[in-house]
Amino acid sequence: MADQVSSEPTPRDEENDTKLQPSQTHQGREGEDGNPSDLTNSISNKSIAETLPLGHEILFVGTVCCAQFMTQSGLGQCLGILRVIGDDFGLTNPGELSWLIAAYSLTVGSFIILAGRFGDLYGYKKMLIIGFLWFSLWSMISGLAVYSNHVLFNFARALQGIGPAICLPNGLALLGSVYAPGPRKAMVFALFGATAPGGAVIGSLFAGLFAELAWWPWAFWSFSIALAGIAAIGSIVIPNPPRKISKPKMSLRNHLTELDLLGGLCGVTALVLINFAWNQAGVVGWSKAYVYVCLILGILFVPVFFFIEVRVSTAPLIPFEALNSDVAFVLGCVACGWSSFGIWVYYLWQFFEILREDSPLLAVAHVCPVAVIGALASVTTGILLGRLRPAWVMMIALTAFTVGIILVATAPMDQIYWGQTFFCTLIIPWGMDMSFPAATLILSNAVSKEHQGVAASLVNTVVNYSISLSLGFAGTIASHVERGGRTPADVLLGYRGAWYMGIGLAGFGLFLSVVFVMKGYWSDRRVQSQSARDEKPSR
């Protein structure tokens, strides 16, 4: 794709015009604080990661993959002991409990695009380390909230989510920048996705252990210590590209222009307000005026954001030249699939702990197949992406999302675990770990090197925001159909109402993926027909 070109040249544009000489092989543009947008070798076409010793490369990839692993651990650590935390804060309303999860996913999904731009401008490695440290700080404060109330806990969880919002796009952008397109890059992206289910299970496991053997805040305090350690390791093992050629120092105005803070503020405001309205409606209902006001304001900010990005900003957050119909199909499929996953995982955990009366540790044991199958699915996806169209991979993923949520939505309350609930944990990971690497790889290859942070942020924004928003939708449905939740049968009715909505979302995503596959073959056929017509006169 062509790079975004503004109407007036900036120092960054001048830098982009600088060509590497043969003697500068393997030199990128990032120095101590620069942008790693040209980390690949311009002469030999061999990426910097491939020049590292194997052990160093493994440590580098492993540290970057911790961005995904710890993000999902942050989700799982609260999901696994949701009732324990709720009891400590005196929370019983399902809507209030869901906020303990949604507050985290809300900021993860809302701040990713802006965080990706910071990485594009100031350096992916630097922002990744900052993200780990921010994540660590607010994880510590989340645990300390036990001495206060659930309001502080939700506030800390929301700010905790900004940490992975910084880590995810910049971690993926590092991988996208240091690996040249090919099977090796596809496998690395698949490994990044493979850590997601394992992270959620491990986070839930340790949270359950601390809740059973010590005190639940230690789940957050130990998590904070681990994140600080990862930041320290990352500062050593993540390679530093050579210093960039000196360039004029950017003015404050140029910095603000490059960051597109006005567009970012409008976009984040729209996402937060819409998400808040839907999730809060599950707590207080739609009778409160402020819920409607937040939703309306959020919707109004959406066209303002696009107006700023298209007509005002000279450096828009979203590279619109890369957003073709294929990218739109991919993001639509990801949104539907991961929305259904958010509903599946939240209500499955409640199903285990409330209706089947499992302990947090037993619930972890019940979902642990997700980690094993997820890793297998990711490796398989890395292989398939080199042999199949990404559209086929996406269709298989959406099929897994649909079948998995149907199984749990129709599972009887008194059925043994080895029935439908076990098999749904074997199927859902194929949806997660096939859709995420495929979507990330498609967008990474679709945009220029300097927009790798934005490409990574788009996929992660859709994934995490869809999870949070879908919980708001599902909570509203569950509260209206559970008839007050006075009996287990009523509670199950609410859960199934939420799951049925998830089936609809996954089914629509499956429909989109089928259209995506057909569109690819139709495009190929049209190109072949055009080529045949072009060759005919010459004969």
UniProtKB/TrEMBL annotation:
It is a multi-pass membrane protein. The chain crosses the membrane at residues 97-115, 127-147, 159-180, 187-209, 215-238, 259-278, 290-308, 328-349, 361-385, 392-411, 417-443, 455-478, 498-518. GO terms for cellular component: membrane. InterPro entries: MFS, MFS_dom, MFS_trans_sf. It comes from the Eukaryota. One of its GO terms (molecular function) is transmembrane transporter activity. Coiled coil: none annotated. This is Major facilitator superfamily (MFS) profile domain-containing protein. It comes from Cladonia borealis.
